[in-house]
Amino acid sequence: MSDHRPPEWMLRFFRWFCHPDYVEDIEGDLEERFATYTQTSGVRRAKWLFMREILKLFRPGLIKKYDSNIQFTPYGMLHNYLKISFRNILRHKTFSALNIAGLSVGIASCILILIYVNNERSYDTYHKKYERIHRVLHYFGSREGEMDFDTLAESDYIVWGNAPVAPALKSYFPEIETVFRFTSPSPWLVSYKEKTFSENNIVFADSTAFEIFDWSIIAGDPKTALVRPNTIVLTKKLAEKYFGEENPIGQTLIMDTEDPFEVTGVIDIPTNSHFSFDAMISMTTFKSMRPEIFDNWGYVDFYTYFTVRPGANVDEFAAKVPDFLEKNFTASFNYYVRMEPLSEAYLHSEAGRQPGPVGSLNNIFIFTSVAIFILLIACINFMNLSTARSVERAKEVAIRKTIGSLKSALIFQFLVEAMLVSFLAALVAIGLVLIGHPYLELLSGKSLPIDWLFTLKNAVLGIFSLLTLGLIAGSYPAFVLSGFRPVSVLKGSFKTSSNGIWLRKALVSLQFALSVILLVGTAVVYSQLDYLRNHDLGFNPDRVLVIDYGYDSIVQRKIEVIKRAMKQHPSVVEASASRATPGDFFPHAGTGVEEPSGEMSYQSPAIYEIDEDFVSTFQMNLIAGRTFSKDFPLDSSNALILNESAARLYGYTDPADVVGKSFEQWGRKGKVIGVIQDFNYVSLHNKVEPLSLRYGTRGNIAMLSLRLNSDNYASTLSELEEIWNQLVPHRPFDNHFLDQNFNAQYEADARFGVIFTIFSGLAVFVACLGLFGLTIFSTAQRTKEVGIRKVLGASTVSIVRLLSRDFLQLFVLSLSVSIPLSWYIMTRWLENFAYSISIGWEIFLLSSIVILVISLVTMSMKTIGTALSNPVNALRDE
Length: 878
Hints:
Blueprint: H1 8-17, H2 20-41, H3 43-57, H4 75-91, H5 93-121, E1 133-141, H6 165-172, E2 176-183, E3 186-192, E4 195-205, H7 209-212, E5 216-220, E6 231-235, H8 236-243, E7 252-255, E8 259-268, E9 279-282, H9 283-289, E10 302-308, H10 317-328, E11 334-341, H11 361-388, H12 390-402, H13 407-444, H14 456-482, H15 486-491, H16 498-534, E12 544-548, H17 553-557, H18 559-567, E13 572-578, E14 591-594, E15 600-603, E16 606-610, H19 614-617, E17 622-625, H20 635-638, E18 639-643, H21 644-649, E19 662-665, E20 668-676, E21 691-695, E22 703-708, H22 713-727, E23 735-737, H23 738-743, H24 747-781, H25 783-791, H26 796-830, H27 841-868, H28 871-875
Parallel strand pairs: 4-9, 6-8, 16-21, 18-20
Antiparallel strand pairs: 1-10, 1-11, 2-10, 3-4, 3-7, 5-8, 6-9, 7-8, 12-22, 12-23, 13-22, 14-15, 14-19, 17-20, 18-21, 19-20
């Protein structure tokens, strides 16, 4: 006989499931078979065959019977449960409506937030090479001393860089497959037949665009569309604007009144792209116009993207960067690059000068938390409302148990009812989602596709989630109601357990806490937005009309004549020409300024090119020296103005000390003539950075700013347009008010505030439903006590106070959790802003009072009615 034994764990499994009457006989046969298999097939195969034999024995005829209340429910019983559930829902219309309303609002809110969050996370994922696309981040620093580039944070880099880095990377790194560059947007005057418009979002782009990005090609050949000079690819929107239903391919657009450009393609860029444009002009066009900048490592106007070959390890790039720069970079300033995956561009990038708007991980976290809060509150609401009915259904349960109903059957009955309510709520929620989706798109300012929701995978996931939601929301009521003792109920001595009371109190406390957190969040968001709107910017943006003429050479030659003509209008107080205005695009410039020690220090502050009227037009504060003046003709070539931050950057704590110091910048040399107070030329998300202001030459001026003193804007704009058309008939009167344009930087924050407030309000609404349910339960439990107190002379006010006291205690308890948690969450959110409010105690106090008042009003709908009821009705059963 063989010494080998069958697997012991399989034998234990067999003994566990097999009926005791058969174990001994069958086990002996199994061991004999194992011995036979061992001799004929070997030990390893014998073990596999032994396990197969045992699994074949796992069948109903041999499985032992367990003493258990859990029974398989046949179809007839399930049908009966559904019928009873429908009857209960229809019989108790108020409770059913509250349950379905709470759950449907919770589910709909959760789905709508999911749609928004999914869209935020979907940016750029439509590209087939999404995982292999990266972009170049650039660091431009002073040329003083050696630097440890490994210590640089990502926020020290910018996405905006130079042109030569792209071919150099392609040549040095064999892992790189394709490189693509595009410039920052530039303004163009575009004409087709009688149509002429000023377009401000046109870029130059390499012909490799379609090798990297999978934009929808509506017309044209992507391989040749951007190869030849003077060719342009339009977006679908721009093509329809100029050509309507006409085929644009091969048509000619006149750019800047003289240059013909052939339309070679039409594309459609999805809205969930982290950068977009209205048209692309071939990069060969730009190269023929300004060939020198394509070898200049210090000229910054390009965004560089590339794909890596399959299997390439991008992490190894970092180790090769120093050698790459040593072989390719020859300029005298400090320069470094790093690679950033496309997957990080929208939500995770901290680099500056992004090519488009970026998302916020904090906002996604907050919205996701709100979705969870609403759904959690909805489940608590369901539990509380179901528990509130426990007194009414106690006799039903008692009678069922008396006539032989098992506890498992009752549990199943209540769970079926809970899941039925969940499915009904889901149907209502789908309707609410379809109604609310267009409004969500309007509030968010984004196209939010929902077709991805209606897939088989999501349908299965949705059904599973509903079943889970029904089980979670209905589990506590099911087990509580099925656990009633029939004797106690039928004798009239029924009481709910203390454990149930404490659980309900804990749930209500959680509702209070979540409501306070959401209301504090709403208050902080609106306080911060109000702070942004009213913060002292260091200049006055009100009533400043900006006319953008896009570097038009004809306008540039006549700009002084235009300024004088505009200033003759009685509503125009000041007029100034500049390259940019606060909130607009601006470059950086390598700038050397004499330090207090006498040495020249080279940095890269931002640069504004302005005229002598810029400071007065924008009502900025000059704190040292003077501004540009026509009394000093050489200001146009040898004078520079700094802001306070720039003065500090070069080592001057007292701004007056930098006045008269030497400077070098972009081919100019001279003296610093003045220092202006820091002003926020970018949004308050960022601190004021060092800024230099130099006199703008005619070819670098693109905007005319007018300060108005009129309240009749319609009439004034009409008259100014008439003056403009007389002097510049070929150019549209493209204008905007500076305050509106500057405040557009906070549009995303404002939209976030509105959406957050709406969903917070829905969460509080659902929480009120839950509070109303617990109030019903509490007052029903104390009906006889209230009757006795009224007979003994208690007043209505004292009874209302009595019925509300427990809830007030729970509210105070919830504050100990909600206040520190809400402070932490909103403090993290405020970190997105360089200038922000401090969260004061008054916000917590006001939010708590509002929630308290809402709660008292909600409870009073039942407590006052109970306090005013006739005590005879409560005591006649005694």
